[in-house]
Amino acid sequence: MNEFVHLNLIGRSPAFLRQLSLVTRYATCDATVLIEGETGTGKELVARAIHYLSPRRDLPFVGLNCGALPDGLVESELFGHFRGAFTDAKETRAGLVAQARGGTLFLDEVEAMSPHAQVALLRFLQDKEYRPVGGAVVKDANVRILASSNADLKGMVRRGQFRSDLLYRLDVLPLHLPPLRERDGDVMLLAEAFVARLNQQSGAPPKVLHPGAGALLSARSWPGNVRELENVIQRQFVLSPGTVIHVTDGADEHRTDNPVGPEPFNVAKARAVAQFERAYVSALLAETCGNLSVAARLAGKDRSDIGRLVRKHGVDRGQFLPRRHVT
Question: Euclidean distance between the first and final Cα of the chain, in Å?
Answer without folding.
Answer: 24
